[in-house]
Every structure is written in structure tokens, then in C-alpha cells.
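Worked example (supplementary).
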Amino acid sequence: MTAVLLGASGASGDVTWVGLAASLVLVAVAVALSLWRGYGLEWDIVWASLRAIVQLLAVGVALTVIIDPDSPLVLSLAWVVFMVVFAAVVIRGRAPGVPGLFAIAVAAISAAAAVSLGVIFGLGVFPAEGRTIVPLAGMMIGNSMTATVVASRRVVGELTDKRDEVEARLALGQPWTVASRPYTRSAVRTALISQIETTKAVGLVFLPGAMTGLILAGVDPVDAVLVQAAVMYLILGSAATTVTVVSIGLTRKLFTSDHRLVRLTREGS
Amino acid sequence: MPQPEVDLFRFEDVRLEVDGATILDGVDAGVPDRGLTALVGPSGSGKSTLLRLCNRLEVPTSGRVRFRGDDLASLDALALRRRVGMVFQRPTLFPGTVAENLEVALPGVAPADAADALERAGLDRAFLDRTGDDLSGGEAQRACLARTLVTGPEVLLMDEPTSALDEANTLVLERLGRQLADGGVPVLWVTHDLGQVDRIADRRIQLADGRVVGDER
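After joint prediction of all chains, the assembly is encoded as:
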């Protein structure tokens, strides 16, 4: 066993194929726990693990081409567009009861990408190259996906739970933009607070992915911290942009032009 | 020759369907522009839905609702709702004090007007500083009535306003409704309680299964 482990990693921290195979022991642990406790998730775990490695390998091959310094930048941008659309598909799947979420998600993540990546590259925090655009967009979009799902579920949930209050406000002659505000604000706060808490806990409670990856790859920890801090701010700014666009877009969909709240079901959440 | 009186609300072959279910099935009725009219019927008869058509919280699938002769669909919904006030079945006070609730209804409301609205709802001005959590169900419902009255509505819609109240508070609210109607604010009051209809209504429109089955003066 010791010999296998010794052969699992290269001198610079690279994971070898043998090391990857060894890590499958942890998948086996998950399967064993599922069997032992009767979770019924064995095939889901195996399928998810296989799918992940196939996807990552495919992405790795594609990225090798896309982020090659000799490749045109438009390839990286096309990859970002693909990620935005695919993220919207995933979001729609995770909150199927929320009406019109695909278009809202595309708009929200695109806006967040434009703002956050525009600032990061516009101010020269990172050089605008394929090797920076693609991974930074990936992290930004991944976090925006979670924020979008939370925000959309919370907006629908708040307006469903507080329907009486919302209609009382509408009955007083408030336009939907005003009548909905206390409830969408609450939903946005919930969606953002988890991101803010994550930002506060970073370094103390957990080491985030980018920093971990850099340290594992042998980069000086202080340099890794600088990169990670910029990434955290990127994620925070993009999450705020995303949930704001989601709450505005979704709320617009949930009210009619003559200021009525459409019928909603909690299934949206 | 006197002009025929224009109805406060006129329902003309009003149908409303939700997800394939018929809620209102060709309602034809007129609500007079004075006194207190009761919309009465069993649960699920469509009476609350009919009431919600009057301030456009609902719109008919087909047919027409008129407000003092004007097609409701042609009126601005927000302006209409400021003319047609509504009190809901359950007291729905917003977070904050009663004064803050009145401020939501009428931003910048003068203290004297706030106190006057409370008085018309049977509460003294000391309630302005109370929050919804401090109020009984009856007091909260009267605070909601005050919140509606502070906007100066021409008409009042009451959607089973006493269904969550005890007998004493029910009688208080009935008296207030009656006073408003007598004071020149026509009231359209939804209830399933025939005894309540006898106590307060000048006119009753009876519904069953989404249709008008009785219209008595």
C-alpha cells in the first residue's frame, strides 16, 4: 500500500494516473457507506464519479487547445458563452417550478460576467489571456449558478408565503415594484449572505479551491493568497450582480402588467 | 324624469377559469351605489373571487365588470385600487407599528389624519405606536381597516373580515361596516354567515357554484 501511495504523486505535487486510481478508494468508501446504511445511492455515486472524470478529461483536452497562448482569444470567449448557456440549463433543471428561469439565468450570469470579468481584466488585475479568462469565468459562473438557484427559489418562496401581505400592498394601490420590494430584498439577502459568510470564513475554516490548487502545484502560498483574494472578490461581485438581476427579472415575471401577482406554487422552491 | 341609478359594480356574464376549473360561471348582477351589499354563499361558491374582481386583483376570463358605468379593464389598476379599498379575511399588518402601516398606505400621512382613520376603525390614537404582535385579532383587523380608510377610498370591499374573530369583535366590525355604509361609503361585504347578513346588509347577492342564485333587496 505504501508503495502504491509513493507512486501516486510526482515530485511537484502532480497527480499521476496511479494516484488518480488510488483516489477511487474514496469512491469505494462512499459506495460502501451507501450499501451499509441503505442509502440506495451506489449507482448514483459510481455514475457521478465516472461522469466527472470523463467530463474533466474532455474539458482538459479542450482547454489545452483553448488556453494555448497561440490560440485566438475568441476561442476562450466562445467557451465562456458555452459555460453561461450550460449553467442556465443546469439552473433551470434545479428549480423547474420557477417560471422563465432559463432566460433570466442567461441574462443574470451574462451581466455578472460582463461586470466582474470587465473589472478584473479592465483594471489589469489579471492579464486577459485564455489561461486566465476560462478558469476565472468558470469559478464566477459556478458560484453564480448556486446564487441564482438560491435567489430564484427564495423570491418565489417569499412571494408565495407572503402572498397575503403582497396583495394587501397591491390593494392599497402600490405598484408591483414597490409591493414586492420587502420580499425580494429578503430573498436577495438570503442568497448573498451565504456568499458573504464564505468570504469571511475563508482561510480560517477552509482553503478555497484556487488557492489549494496553486499550493498543490507548488506556488508560493503568499502568491496563492493574492490570486485567491482577487478570485473571492470576483465571486462576491458576480454573486451580487447575479442575484440582483435574477430578483428583478423574476419578480417582473411574477407580476402582470396591471399589477397582479400571478398564481404561484411552493413547488417553485 | 329621474335618471336611472348607475350601479356601483355591474357584472356582465362574468366567467373566470383557473387551470381548467370554473370559478365563476356567467355571473350577472349589479351592486347598488349605496348602503351595504352582502355577497353570500358557501365556501367555494366564488364570492371572494367576485369581490377580488372589483379591484382587479383578479380579471375575468370573459365578460365584463363595470365600476360606476366604466369598464374596469379600461381603468388604471393602481388608480382604481386607491378608490376601491379592501380589507382581507385575515389581518395582514405589515412589520412595524400601526403608524408605520398607515404610512405605507399613505406616505407622509398627517398625524391628525392617522388618528382620524383609527377612530373610524374604532381604535384610539394610542394604537399608533403598537405593533401587530401586540394586537388581538380584532384589533389587528380594525388596524387593517384603518390602514385602508386612511387612503380615503370611495368604496370598501370586505372579504369575510370577521371569519377569524370572536363574537364580540365580529359585532364591533359589523357596526363599523354599517357606520361606513351609512356615512356614504358603499360597502361590499363577503360572508357565509346568514345571520350576519340579516344584521347588517341592505341587499344580498347569493352565490352557489360560481353562479348568482339569489338577489334580494
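Two points are worth noting when inspecting this output. The mean pLDDT of chain B is 93. Strands of chain B lie at 9-18, 21-31, 36-40, 62-67, 70-71, 84-87, 155-159, 187-191, 203-208, 211-216.
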